[in-house]
Amino acid sequence: MRRTDFAVPRNSAIPYQAFSSEVLAQYRSVRRETEQLCETLAIEDYGIQAMPDVSPPKWHLAHTTWFFEAFLLVPFLPGYQVFHPRFAYLFNSYYQTVGSFFPRPQRGLLSRPTVEEVYRYRVHVDSAMAELVAIAEVPQRDQIISRTVLGLHHEQQHQELLLTDIKYNFAFNPLRPTYRPAPDHAGKAPVPLQWLAYEGGLREIGFSGTDFAYDNEMPRHKVYLEDFQLASRLVTNGEFLAFIEDDGYRRADLWLSDGWAAVQQRNWQAPLYWENIDDQWRIMTLAGLRRLDRNEPVCHVSFYEADAYARWCGKRLPTEAEWEVAAQDREVHGNLRETGKLHPVAAESGAGNGPVQLFGDVWEWTQSPYRPYPGFQPLNGSLGEYNGKFMCNQLVLRGGSCVTPQSHIAATYRNFFYPADRWQFMGIRLAADAD
């Protein structure tokens, strides 16, 4: 997979409010990247939805297009004609203030619009966006540029979801199809886990600045932390396998009550995509089914599994504030989507200069509930539904994964999922109180 040639403004030297021709170039690059991710798909793959939480690739392509149509073209481009009057109903995801929407669990039941029509929809909107960006003087210039950048990051989120959902859809198929071949990364010796000490006290987390950030990353605020320790790297498959072999999935004393109920109801015996075939563990990847590499980070575990494993180790999961304090001075670098691996890989170096694998490989569960920061203000209007309405009953994850675009992630980025979710690329970094 090629290295992307764009950088959506997040931490750049160019203020994201500046309206320039670069915006259109970035827009075209992001939109092209989404379509390139679908190039290996067969036409039959575009409409599959193997469970309610995933969406068909065709829906992702259309929804990200609807976002630009609904929030930029309809309000700001004079004379714009919507591509299809019913697409707003089909491809609105959850914006109650915009209108009603088609039920999420039933997206895979729709044979129409066709894939060809969805791609024509994208061309229609892209052409109109070029016209909008070309307008020299408009009173809403700053609002247009900020919404465009938000839309690009929104599309990058769906690029990640495309890969995540394709993996689930392919794993559901007994043929175990291959999305894209990848080299076997097995054979690396595990990097010894070290414990890194951090001083507590009054610290600051959250975003401040003039570049792009989601509203849930703000405002920057003070938090008080006790001294703590953080593991230098992620938990590996081999380490998690020891938990399984010690009857970790059969010991109620290790699990939160809701977690134990999930284990019983869903018959969990290992992370998602693990298969024991003839006493050999194998794992489904975007490159197909392959032998489990014990040195790779464990992936596709729920919060409940991450928490139970931490208890088994006599440790705990970090808070999101602890994670951000450890990450806030680190370069955003790691096994992100641009590497082309599309799968977690073993840590390549020790922790001489601090923790490794903070960015990329897997989203790291924290023990922090997804709640608003003190003084949080959602975006005005319908876009205020983007993050704020979900601040209940979910947990925060940090750091991005092997399918996250590098220009999309930052130390302040807050992802969030329900504690039983497993299909996202989710993993574990341990923490502990100071000695």
Placed side by side, the strands forming the largest sheet appear as 12-11-10-13
Q: Choose one word for the global shape.
A: globular
- The CATH topology assignment of the largest domain is paralog of FGE (formylglycine-generating enzyme)
Q: What is the annotated CATH architecture of the largest domain?
A: Alpha-Beta Complex
Alpha carbon gyration radius: 22 Å
Category by helix and strand content: alpha+beta
Uncertain stretches: 1-7, 11-18
Q: Characterize the largest beta sheet: strand count, sense, and whether it forms a barrel.
A: 4 strands, mixed
Estimated helix fraction = 25-40%
How much of the polypeptide forms β-strand, as a percent range? Answer: 5-15%
| SSE series | HHHHHEEEEHHEEEHHEEEEEEE
**CATH homology superfamily name of the largest domain:** paralog of FGE (formylglycine-generating enzyme)
Mean pLDDT: 92
The end-to-end distance, rounded to whole angstroms, is 44 Å
Q: List the total number of helices.
A: 9
Report the count of strand segments: 14
Number of domains: 2
Q: Can you characterise this structure?
A:
The chain has helices at residues 22-36, 57-76, 87-91, 115-134, 141-172, 237-245, 257-266, 303-313, 320-327, and strands spanning 195-198, 201-205, 221-225, 228-231, 274-277, 280-285, 288-291, 334-335, 359-360, 363-369, 395-398, 415-417, 426-427, 431-433. Strand 6 and strand 7 form a beta hairpin. Helix 1 (22-36) runs antiparallel to helix 4 and helix 7 crosses helix 8 (303-313). The longest helix has 32 residues, at 141-172. The protein has nine helices and 14 strands. The radius of gyration is 22 Å and the shape is globular. Residues 1-7 and 11-18 have low confidence and may be disordered. 42% of the residues are buried. It has a four-stranded mixed beta sheet. It has two domains: 22-172, dinb family like domain (Four Helix Bundle (Hemerythrin (Met), subunit A)); 195-433, paralog of FGE (formylglycine-generating enzyme) (Alpha-Beta Complex). It starts with 21 loop residues before the first helix and ends with a strand. The chain is an alpha+beta fold and 435 residues long.
